[in-house]
Structure to design on (648 residues):
C-alpha cells in the first residue's frame, strides 16, 4: 500500500494521512493507490503540514507497517527513548522497527 | 570569559526579532516552506525525524554557569527534559515546536547565546581545545583568537554562501584535543625559537564521505595577520570550490585536486593583496578581547595534595582529572557516557547541576568537548572530592574518560533524517558488553566512534575503532574501521571488510580487543598495536568462522 506522511508545521510531529485529515498514529493511515500527489498539493496549500511524501507500507495483523526502517522509527519514536515514543508502556516496542 | 558588547547584543536581539517575524509569517501561511526552510536553517532549526531540532552554538565550547543553567531550563520548558551535546561542542534539542523557537532564541539571547550559523554553507561555530586556558601543556591560550574568529565569521557577508559548510578549530597546545587536522581549517598557535607566537594553518581536512587530513598551508602566520590569512584561504575556496556537486564542494576536495602547493601559492597571492586592504582588526581589539580571558583569581596557596583514600574517587581522578597549569588546581571532565546510556545526553537536572558546580567550584566556567563530555576547567584540588560526590549522586561520575565506553556517537537513525542506521543502540550495547571498569582500564585508551551515515558526525574515521552504519537493502548494517586517530598522530581508519549486524558488530569489537590484548607490547595503546601488526591479525580473528559442534 502507499501511504502519505508529513510533519505538523507547528509542532513538527510526524503525521499520517487518514483520508479525511491527519493522525499521529500510523495505524490510521489509509492506502492511497492513486491521487497522492493531488492530496499532497492540496494539504500543503493549507500550510498546516510540511515535508509531505508518499511511502510504501504493508498492512499486517499488527497494523500498518512502513516498508523502510526510517519510516518505522518515525512512526514509533526514538527506539532509545521509548518513554518518549508513541508506545511508552511497551518495553518491546523497539523491536517493531527492526 | 568574553562578554557581549552593545554590538554583539544588538545583533543577536535583532536576529531574534527577525526570526520571530519569519516564523509568524510561516505559521500564517504567508510564506511557503521552500521560502522558509533556508531562513529557519540560518537559525539552527532543522526538521528531523520526529520534530524540529534546534542546534545551539556554544562558542569554542565555552559556557558560564548562567548559560548552562539556561540550557537546562530550555530543555525543561520547551523540550522533553534533556539535551544532546554534540561533536561540534554544541547542544541540540530534539523536540522543539516551531511556534516556540523564537522564544527559545530570545531566552538564549538573554544569556549571550544564539543558534546563528549552526547550519548552512557558512562558517560554522569555531571549535577549540576544551582545556584552553587551563591545560598544563598550553603554549598560548586560544580563546581570545577563537573569540576574534567568532566576531569575524558571524554574519560575514562574503562567506555566507560558500560552496559548502566550513568548520574551523583552533588550539594552543602541543596536544591536539580538538581534532584540528580533520577540520576545513585547523589553526595551531605555536611559538618559534624567539618565543614569538604564530599561527600554523592546516587547511583542507575533514571527515564525511571523503576523509582527508589537512596539510600545513601556512607555517607561521603572525597572529595580527590571522584574519587576513583566513580571508585569503576562504577567498580562494569561495572562488574555486565546486558548487556543481555537493559531494565535491568542501575545501578538502579543492586542496586535494589542485594540490597543497598550488593552493598555498594562491592563498599567499591573495594574502599579499588583502594585507594592502587593511582588513585586519586593530591590535587593540585583540587586546580588548584578551582582557576577558585573564586567569581567574587562583589561590596561590592552594595545596597540591589530594586525599585518594576513597577508592572510587581515586579511580575517577586517575581517569577523568587532568593536570592544570596552576598548582593546586585540576581539570575535571564529566563523562556523559554511563553504561547503557546515550552518549552526550544530559537531563535538565544534570545540566543545572553541572552549572551549579561550575559556579561554586570552577570559577563559573564549563566546556563542552567534541567527545560529548563536559569539563570543569578550574577546580581546586581540595574541592575535587566534593565535586565528585555531587556528580556521583547525579549519575555523572562515570570514570571512563578515553576508555572504550567513552563512545562518541551521532544521534543516528533514532533522530536524524540523514542517517542510514542507528548509532545509539550500538553504543549502548558496546558499553554494556564492556561494562566492567577493570576490563576497560585493562584495555587502556581506546577511542571508539560511531556514525550513522557517511556524513561522519560521529567521527568514525578518527576512531581507534570506528563504526559506520549503512543501509543495506533496508536493513541496518555496520562497517568496522580500525586504526583511526585524531590529535598529533591523526590517521584515518581502514574498513576491516564486510559489515555486521547490530549484535555482530559488538562481537567483532570484542574479538578485535582480544587480538590487541594478546599481541600488545608494553605501553602500547590499541591503535599502537594496530599500527605495528597491521590489519591482518585483526581481520583473521574478526571474520573467523565459529567451529561447528558435533
Amino acid at each position: 500500500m502507499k501511504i502519505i506522511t508529513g510533519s505538523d508545521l507547528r509542532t513538527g510531529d510526524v503525521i499520517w494521512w487518514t483520508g479525511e485529515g491527519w493522525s499521529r498514529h500510523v495505524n490510521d493511515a489509509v492506502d492511497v493507490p492513486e491521487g497522492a500527489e493531488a492530496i499532497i498539493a492540496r494539504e500543503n496549500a493549507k500550510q498546516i503540514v510540511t515535508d509531505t511524501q508518499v511511502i510504501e507500507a504493508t498492512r499486517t495483523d499488527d497494523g500498518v507497517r512502513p516498508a523502510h526502517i526510517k519510516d518505522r522509527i518515525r512512526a514509533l519514536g526514538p527506539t532509545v527513548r521509548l518513554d518518549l515514543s508513541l508506545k511508552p508502556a511497551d518495553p518491546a516496542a523497539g523491536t517493531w522497527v527492526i | 570569559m568574553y562578554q557581549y558588547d552593545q554590538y554583539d547584543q544588538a545583533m543577536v536581539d535583532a536576529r531574534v526579532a527577525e526570526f520571530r517575524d519569519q516564523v509568524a509569517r510561516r505559521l500564517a501561511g504567508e510564506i511557503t516552506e521552500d521560502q522558509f526552510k533556508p531562513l529557519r536553517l540560518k537559525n539552527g532549526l532543522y526538521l528531523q525525524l520526529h520534530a524540529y531540532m534546534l542546534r545551539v552554538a556554544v562558542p569554542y565550547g565555552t559556557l558560564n554557569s548562567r548559560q548552562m543553567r539556561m540550557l537546562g531550563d530550555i530543555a525543561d520548558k520547551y523540550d522533553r527534559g534533556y539535551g544532546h551535546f554534540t561533536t561540534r561542542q554544541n547542544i541540540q534539542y530534539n523536540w522543539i515546536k516551531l511556534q516556540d523557537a523564537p522564544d527559545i532564541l530570545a531566552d538564549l539571547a538573554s544569556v549571550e547565546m544564539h543558534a546563528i550559523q549552526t547550519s548552512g554553507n557558512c562558517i560554522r561555530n569555531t571549535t577549540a581545545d576544551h582545556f584552553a586556558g587551563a591545560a598544563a601543556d598550553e603554549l598560548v591560550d586560544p580563546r581570545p583568537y577563537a573569540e576574534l574568529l567568532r566576531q569575524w565569521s558571524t554574519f560575514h557577508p562574503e562567506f555566507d554562501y560558500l560552496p559548502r559548510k566550513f568548520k574551523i578549530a583552533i588550539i594552543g597546545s602541543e596536544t591536539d584535543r580538538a581534532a584540528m587536522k580533520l577540520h576545513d581549517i585547523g589553526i595551531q598557535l605555536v611559538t618559534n625559537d624567539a618565543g614569538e607566537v604564530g599561527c600554523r594553518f592546516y587547511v583542507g581536512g575533514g571527515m564525511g564521505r571523503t576523509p582527508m587530513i589537512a596539510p600545513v598551508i601556512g607555517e607561521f602566520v603572525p597572529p595580527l595577520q590571522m584574519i587576513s590569512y583566513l580571508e585569503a584561504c576562504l577567498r580562494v575556496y569561495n572562488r574555486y570550490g565546486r558548487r556543481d556537486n555537493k559531494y565535491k564542494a568542501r575545501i578538502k576536495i579543492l586542496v586535494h585536486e589542485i594540490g597543497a602547493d598550488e593552493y598555498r601559492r594562491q592563498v599567499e597571492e591573495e594574502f599579499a593583496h588583502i594585507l594592502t586592504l587593511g582588513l585586519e582588526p586593530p591590535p587593540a581589539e585583540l587586546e580588548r578581547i584578551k582582557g576577558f580571558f585573564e586567569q581567574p583569581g587562583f589561590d596561590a596557596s592552594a595545596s597540591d595534595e589530594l586525599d585518594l583514600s576513597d577508592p572510587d574517587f581515586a579511580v575517577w581522578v586517575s581517569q577523568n582529572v587532568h593536570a592544570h597549569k596552576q598548582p593546586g588546581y585540576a581539570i575535571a571532565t564529566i563523562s556523559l557516557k554511563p553504561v547503557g546510556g546515550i552518549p552526550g545526553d544530559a537531563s535538565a537536572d544534570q545540566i543545572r547541576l553541572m552549572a551549579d558546580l561550575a559556579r561554586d567550584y570552577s570559577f563559573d566556567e564549563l566546556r563542552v568537548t567534541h567527545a560529548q563530555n563536559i569539563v570543569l576547567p578550574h577546580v581546586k584540588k581540595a574541592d575535587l572530592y566534593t565535586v565528585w560526590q555531587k556528580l556521583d549522586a547525579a549519575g555523572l561520575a562515570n570514570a571512563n574518560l578515553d576508555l572504550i565506553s567513552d563512545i562518541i556517537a551521532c544521534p543516528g537513525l533514532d533522530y536524524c533524517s540523514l542517517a542510514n542506521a542507528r548509532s545509539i543502540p550500538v553504543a549502548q550495547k558496546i558499553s554494556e558488553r564492556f561494562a566492567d571498569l577493570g576490563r576497560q582500564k585493562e584495555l587502556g585508551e581506546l577511542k571508539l566512534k560511531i556514525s550513522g551515515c557517511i556524513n561522519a558526525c560521529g567521527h568514525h574515521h578518527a576512531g581507534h575503532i570506528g563504526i559506520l552504519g549503512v543501509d543495506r537493502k533496508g536493513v541496518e548494517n555496520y562497517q568496522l574501521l580500525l586504526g583511526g586517530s585524531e590529535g598529533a598522530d591523526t590517521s584515518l581508519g581502514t574498513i576491516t571488510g564486510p559489515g555486521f549486524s547490530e549484535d555482530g558488530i559488538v562481537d567483532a569489537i570484542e574479538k578485535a580487543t582480544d587480538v590487541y590484548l594478546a599481541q600488545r607490547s608494553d605501553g602500547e595503546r590499541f591503535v599502537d598495536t594496530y599500527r605495528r601488526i597491521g590489519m591482518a591479525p585483526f581481520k583473521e580473528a574478526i571474520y573467523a568462522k565459529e567451529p561447528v559442534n558435533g
In short: DSSP finds two helices and five strands in chain A. Chain A has a mean pLDDT of 96. Residues 2-86 of chain A form one domain.
